[in-house]
């Protein structure tokens, strides 16, 4: 307080200093301080972290993009959700980049009731036949469907409009986009406008409002332009007035030509040497009668159109007729007859039209075998029941996408030929079915010649002059399980039932049209998209115009129709009348109801022979009797003179008939291979092991020398060139082929490109490739692995690829590759490549013996998603149509995008009521969410629209999904607190377990739930808490803390305990115990070491393991682990009270432990049932544990000692005796050998002669007789002494007659005593106490 009592308040805040009004000069001073302080604060504050990339449909917060509702991606660049647009004009897009996989986006455009909305597709590029944009005239998918866009949509020529402008008149437009898991293209950019003129009057008029407020705007066209969008020119060049014609301005505003002139502008003469197209302006009663996959026939210049596919069958007219001369359409009302269908066949004979087969779209897509006959004069239908003609023919094929013709045979009988088609039971049909119109009998005849490959959506034309049917294109099952479009052309001789293969067009297509005019086959339009990876653009429909010259076996590309707009289409029909071709209907994102007329050049217009012969392309003329007339196939005077082609063009023919019955100049070799006629029939392949005998014989045939390899098999299972590996025969070839040619090569050998699904096959192939590499023959062969069903890699035998024994190289598989080859045998490395590229080598396989695989249930017979998807990569489930289709027939099963979404693995709920959360509900375009009054996220998912829920109305005989739903607002009334959500979910989504704060944040989850939206159970509880569901405690018997959230299966924490509730011991692996009253123990063996590796993903919940051991004496225990653990050891005696365990050791946080337990402390001898329990707990995963128990004695038993001692002593004695016996045996044997040598020596010693004088008998002398000879032996210690002895002579003293009386006697004597002893050094004897060895006996050897 200042003097005078005046107070000055000074209050300091975070900012300027407040002063009283009495000091105005301080205000400026403190403002300056505030500014400086603020500047310092801003410069020193840390700036917000920026994002590396721009956030397209979101905001950058703390370095990452936070997306707006309905957008996802790291840059918020992909749509994924529902949007509502209410501006008078705007645009919608999938995002600035390629759309993502599995995209589902929905846009609702809302305008005033009954307002006209126009959609303009500035850019559209999606994968043809797989990724679709659906446009509905209403606020739900139950509203009328007006367009289905798919593929690449660009103008054919500048100024033409490929994309028709889509118009809705209900005041709403719902657009839904779905993409699968394969290709993601650039997407779309679509402009919309409300109550605007169509296409801004195309720049040829001005947009004018109506006279009243309720009327719509319209275009006032400039002169010479007409149409709603002023896009149709008329009276060009004033119709050549006055000479050629005049312009009629009173009616349709078109040229009226004079009699001698024709053409859109009356510029061509009659007849004319030029061709032209006409687009009449007359349409059949509006867009409701537009259709595709219908059929048409001509009878007396009237075109009859029967059946066909349409978006909405409520106002569908089964039969239409069109007067080709007057251009007038008429509907044919029918009260009783067949239900609508498409993909059927139509054939006319006299006054009857025969309709066979087709798909009943209004009956959940069943393919039928019904035959209906329509009588044109009476306009009545009659159904013909099938009559089987042959016992071998058990039934008629129910097919779709086939063709039929009524033909008269040379025998006079009239039959209806049904060619090819697709059967959901038997897949693609390659047979011809015949129906005899007189006997009404069905027959499937045996055909000759080539072996055709049947399919769906081909075209066929019948030439009556040659009795031949020409069949072109189609969607077919190719070899080795592949499928796609083909450009084949066949000719079928009706009378001989023989097939011929003609030249391919080079432009595969299906659902096109064909007509025969002047000896030329004219092919128009069709779906030409085959493989997204190989096509330059994913264009579904085309306006291609091709001509096949039958006389020359030659294809020509004709100019496309030069009209004021593009006429791309598929699923249309074509008929011929009065020399012109009439094309009706079809599909080009929208269903078409226009008629195109093509008039070819007229042969009569050529006045000179030179011009007549050179006429064309598109017409074939001949000069006959001074005038030019059209050529007919019946004028052909023989077969074609084929020019030999390359071997690659002949490889695809896998049978002798097809190889010979074609125009490519092919020949069939004895080794079952089709090659060019200019090549020799030699077989060259890489030997892969096996010993077989080959006999090569040289044969001369048709001036060609062929080497015929005649194989004499020495193996029963695999033939020459093949090696048996397990249950399959494998063959490696070194040629350079594309994948398709590799398949043809293997098929020619009665095999298939190899699916290496077993480790034995992989090891064999790798070993063979390494052997070849050592021989400097490096191969990178094709294997039977390819991308199946748009995004899944699988083997050709439909086995899934596991990436185990054979693995992808780094960076593989590439997006451009659809087929795989073995690049690096050393590392089992695979690489992906386009199927049209070549690889060095191929591997074929075929089954051993004649075993046949089991027949699987057809996909079409599965009635729910679970059964359908149980066969991986074979069947596909469409939830919107509730149909199961074969994966190789998905495109033809839904050619017009009828399937909103498909599944091959996880199945979605079959209807909206099965979806439990709002996000799941709004993910399906047909569903909406009704939130309950609690505003906690609970509600009910139900079918509905933007205006409210809808209810299905059952109608007798009708089951379609587009016109049987009515609005049912009472199911979710707002006045009772319910909230209907169709675009976005309610902000509060707590599943009924919490209320929200700040509108969307769950305050506190109750009822044992957790998560941002209380969408899951707390740990230790299980259940589905979504939409008010309950959680229950995990029942794990005290052996687990958590369980699987949905199923309640416990994650047991003790190794060895198993079961959904941890109620069992793993007794198969030596775990014993009772987890209901205790735990489980691993029963250890004594004197063994055990290692437990808990390193797998399934082991991550384990935190304990228990052991038990029952020793008989002193015990040593050791345990160690890779991580720290707690250890408890107890013991007990069996038979005591349960649980009575005595603790011994208790350790915590250790890695190893060793201990010994002696019998002094534990009476092992008196208690033989002592058991030790080891509890290892509180360890972390992963871990390795080693544990061992061993036992020993402290005092040795005397009895055991003596037993052991004497056992060892006796064993030694026994060994000594055996050794002595062996020694004696060896000595005896050696002595015998020595004696034998002595005897041999004695027998071989030299002999000497001695003269003996025989005196008269003398007196007997005493003493030793003197020897005649003494022969010393080797060694000088023995000698052989020889003496003469007189034999006794008796009393006569004379020897017996003939004898001398003398004998020679020899003896072995010892002469060692006669030698002086050797001198021995006694000093040496004293030094060496060791006795000298005895002297050896002398020997005579």
UniProtKB/TrEMBL annotation:
The chain crosses the membrane at residues 1198-1222. Residues 988-1033 form the Laminin EGF-like domain. Coiled coil: none annotated. Pfam families: Beta-prop_ATRN-LZTR1 (PF24981), CUB (PF00431), EGF_LMN_ATRN (PF24973), EGF_Teneurin (PF23106), GBD_ATRN (PF24972), Lectin_C (PF00059), PSI (PF01437). GO terms for molecular function: carbohydrate binding. Disulfide bonds join 197-207, 221-230, 1005-1014, 1017-1031. InterPro entries: Beta-prop_ATRN-MKLN-like, C-type_lectin-like, C-type_lectin-like/link_sf, CTDL_fold, CUB_dom, EGF, GBD_ATRN, Kelch-typ_b-propeller. Residues 193-231 form the EGF-like domain. One of its GO terms (cellular component) is Golgi apparatus. Residues 725-845 form the C-type lectin domain. PROSITE patterns: C_TYPE_LECTIN_2, CUB, EGF_1, EGF_3, EGF_LAM_1, EGF_LAM_2. Residues 79-195 form the CUB domain. It is found in: Membrane. The keyword Ubl conjugation does not apply. It is a single-pass membrane protein. Keywords: Disulfide bond, EGF-like domain, Glycoprotein, Kelch repeat, Laminin EGF-like domain, Lectin, Membrane, Repeat, Signal, Transmembrane, Transmembrane helix. PANTHER family: DISTRACTED, ISOFORM B (PTHR46376:SF2), LEUCINE-ZIPPER-LIKE TRANSCRIPTIONAL REGULATOR 1 (PTHR46376). This is Attractin like 1. It comes from Poecilia latipinna (sailfin molly).
